[in-house]
Amino acid sequence: MAVLEVTGEALLSGDFEMFASVFQVPQTIVTLDQRISVATLDDLRRVFEGVHAHYVETGVVELDRKVVEAAYLSPTKVVSTHTTVTRSPTHGETVRQPVFSTIEKIGTTWKVTSGEYALDKNDGRAKAMALAAQNDAGTE
Q1: Which of 109, 129, 131, 137 has its CA 20 to 30 A from that of 50?
Q2: 17-25: average pLDDT
Protein backbone atom coordinates (compact mmCIF):
# COMPACT_ATOMS: atom_id res chain seq x y z
CA MET A 1 0.00 0.00 0.00
CA ALA A 2 1.32 3.49 -0.86
CA VAL A 3 2.05 6.06 1.85
CA LEU A 4 -1.04 8.18 1.06
CA GLU A 5 -3.29 5.13 1.18
CA VAL A 6 -1.79 3.98 4.49
CA THR A 7 -2.06 7.37 6.18
CA GLY A 8 -5.56 8.02 4.83
CA GLU A 9 -6.92 4.64 5.92
CA ALA A 10 -5.24 4.99 9.32
CA LEU A 11 -6.62 8.49 9.94
CA LEU A 12 -10.16 7.45 9.04
CA SER A 13 -10.08 4.19 11.02
CA GLY A 14 -8.15 5.49 14.04
CA ASP A 15 -5.29 3.02 13.57
CA PHE A 16 -2.24 4.76 15.02
CA GLU A 17 0.06 1.76 14.53
CA MET A 18 -0.67 1.76 10.79
CA PHE A 19 -0.13 5.53 10.64
CA ALA A 20 3.13 5.42 12.61
CA SER A 21 4.50 2.67 10.36
CA VAL A 22 5.11 5.24 7.60
CA PHE A 23 6.39 8.17 9.69
CA GLN A 24 9.92 8.73 10.90
CA VAL A 25 10.54 10.45 14.21
CA PRO A 26 11.99 12.86 14.99
CA GLN A 27 10.66 15.33 12.43
CA THR A 28 9.06 18.75 12.21
CA ILE A 29 5.56 19.36 10.88
CA VAL A 30 4.96 22.84 9.47
CA THR A 31 1.67 24.67 8.86
CA LEU A 32 1.18 28.27 7.73
CA ASP A 33 1.22 29.42 11.36
CA GLN A 34 3.40 27.00 13.32
CA ARG A 35 6.22 24.49 13.49
CA ILE A 36 5.55 21.35 15.53
CA SER A 37 8.43 19.28 16.82
CA VAL A 38 7.61 15.58 16.64
CA ALA A 39 10.46 14.13 18.66
CA THR A 40 8.84 10.90 19.85
CA LEU A 41 6.10 8.45 18.97
CA ASP A 42 4.06 9.99 21.79
CA ASP A 43 4.30 13.37 20.01
CA LEU A 44 3.23 11.72 16.75
CA ARG A 45 0.35 10.00 18.56
CA ARG A 46 -0.92 13.36 19.89
CA VAL A 47 -0.94 14.82 16.39
CA PHE A 48 -2.61 11.70 14.98
CA GLU A 49 -5.25 11.55 17.70
CA GLY A 50 -6.06 15.24 17.26
CA VAL A 51 -6.53 14.97 13.50
CA HIS A 52 -8.47 11.69 13.81
CA ALA A 53 -10.76 13.26 16.46
CA HIS A 54 -11.34 16.24 14.16
CA TYR A 55 -12.35 13.87 11.36
CA VAL A 56 -14.72 11.99 13.69
CA GLU A 57 -16.26 15.23 15.02
CA THR A 58 -16.85 16.59 11.53
CA GLY A 59 -18.08 13.28 10.12
CA VAL A 60 -15.32 12.86 7.54
CA VAL A 61 -15.90 9.61 5.65
CA GLU A 62 -13.56 10.11 2.70
CA LEU A 63 -10.16 11.60 1.96
CA ASP A 64 -9.61 12.44 -1.71
CA ARG A 65 -5.85 12.70 -2.10
CA LYS A 66 -4.01 13.27 -5.34
CA VAL A 67 -0.28 13.47 -6.04
CA VAL A 68 0.43 16.68 -7.93
CA GLU A 69 4.14 16.16 -8.42
CA ALA A 70 6.87 13.90 -7.10
CA ALA A 71 10.58 13.67 -7.80
CA TYR A 72 13.42 11.46 -6.67
CA LEU A 73 16.27 13.45 -5.16
CA SER A 74 18.22 10.22 -4.73
CA PRO A 75 17.39 6.49 -4.91
CA THR A 76 16.21 6.70 -1.30
CA LYS A 77 14.65 10.18 -1.11
CA VAL A 78 11.50 11.55 -2.75
CA VAL A 79 9.88 14.96 -2.48
CA SER A 80 6.19 15.07 -3.23
CA THR A 81 3.29 17.48 -3.32
CA HIS A 82 -0.21 16.10 -2.91
CA THR A 83 -3.58 17.64 -2.26
CA THR A 84 -6.32 16.53 0.10
CA VAL A 85 -10.06 17.12 0.12
CA THR A 86 -12.11 15.79 3.02
CA ARG A 87 -15.73 14.77 2.51
CA SER A 88 -18.44 14.59 5.15
CA PRO A 89 -22.19 14.05 4.74
CA THR A 90 -22.80 16.70 7.41
CA HIS A 91 -20.04 19.23 6.61
CA GLY A 92 -19.64 18.77 2.85
CA GLU A 93 -16.32 19.03 1.09
CA THR A 94 -13.27 21.04 2.15
CA VAL A 95 -11.18 23.16 -0.18
CA ARG A 96 -8.33 21.16 -1.72
CA GLN A 97 -5.27 21.71 0.51
CA PRO A 98 -1.68 21.13 -0.68
CA VAL A 99 0.91 19.23 1.33
CA PHE A 100 4.64 19.03 0.59
CA SER A 101 6.33 15.91 1.96
CA THR A 102 9.79 14.45 2.06
CA ILE A 103 9.69 10.64 1.98
CA GLU A 104 12.79 8.56 2.55
CA LYS A 105 13.56 4.87 2.34
CA ILE A 106 14.69 3.82 5.80
CA GLY A 107 15.78 0.22 5.82
CA THR A 108 13.17 -1.44 3.58
CA THR A 109 10.32 0.97 4.35
CA TRP A 110 9.41 4.34 2.82
CA LYS A 111 8.64 6.86 5.58
CA VAL A 112 7.53 10.48 5.72
CA THR A 113 10.40 12.44 7.25
CA SER A 114 8.86 15.92 7.02
CA GLY A 115 5.62 17.58 6.01
CA GLU A 116 4.50 21.12 5.20
CA TYR A 117 0.73 21.67 5.26
CA ALA A 118 -0.97 24.69 3.68
CA LEU A 119 -3.42 24.98 6.57
CA ASP A 120 -4.21 28.23 8.33
CA LYS A 121 -4.79 28.40 12.06
CA ASN A 122 -8.59 28.20 11.65
CA ASP A 123 -8.53 24.83 9.85
CA GLY A 124 -9.61 21.99 12.14
CA ARG A 125 -6.58 19.89 11.28
CA ALA A 126 -4.24 22.79 12.09
CA LYS A 127 -6.10 23.36 15.38
CA ALA A 128 -5.64 19.66 16.22
CA MET A 129 -1.92 19.92 15.47
CA ALA A 130 -1.67 23.11 17.56
CA LEU A 131 -3.33 21.37 20.50
CA ALA A 132 -0.83 18.53 20.19
CA ALA A 133 1.96 21.10 20.15
CA GLN A 134 0.59 22.80 23.31
CA ASN A 135 0.79 19.45 25.07
CA ASP A 136 4.41 19.03 23.97
CA ALA A 137 7.11 20.92 25.81
CA GLY A 138 9.40 20.32 22.80
CA THR A 139 7.37 22.50 20.43
CA GLU A 140 9.49 24.98 18.48
Answers
A1: 109
A2: 97
CB 129 within 8 A of CB 29: yes
Per-residue pLDDT at 95: 77
Q: What amino acid is encoded at 104 in this protein?
A: E
Domains, in order of start, for the chain: 3-134 (3.10.450.50)
Q: In this predicted structure, what is the pLDDT of residue 62?
A: 95
Q: What are phi and psi of 116, to 5 degrees?
A: -125, 120
pLDDT, tens digit, 9 for 90 and up, residues 27-83: 999 988 888 889 999 999 999 999 999 999 999 999 999 999 999 999 999 999 999
Rounded to whole angstroms, the Cα distance separating 27 from 15 reads 20
